[in-house]
Amino acid sequence: xxxxxxxxxxxxxxxxxxxxxxxxxxxxxxxxxxxxxxxxxxxxxxxxxxxxxxxxxxxxxxxxxxxxxxxxxxxxxxxxxxxxxxxxxxxxxxxxxxxxxxxxxxxxxxxxxxxxxxxxxxxxxxxxxxxxxxxxxxxxxxxxxx
Length: 146
Prior knowledge:
The chain is α/β, with parallel strands linked by helices.
């Protein structure tokens, strides 16, 4: 079975109460429930992880990438500075899609740069929580076990 890792970085644990105008009203748990539901429909396994600590994200990627086939990552505040997370993703040799709830390109300058973008299969920004579903659909259609 295809397995997709879903990684969320700093402050995404506060979704639902964190600036709903930018990030929507769904909590991270609600988003994960939507992704898990879609994964079941697609016959794909998913594993979720969120941390406010860069090293914890690196550790989790290293510990979980061997049995996975792709990654969805919303780096949050690590998007512009998370080189160690990028290195872990590159070392894992898994295709990944970068997701952002808000349109980072229409926001403050510091949010517009992504260390992941040049290496990602794609970037989905500004489509809210549904961006995770679109990323899952893409990976489920393009990556296969073995």
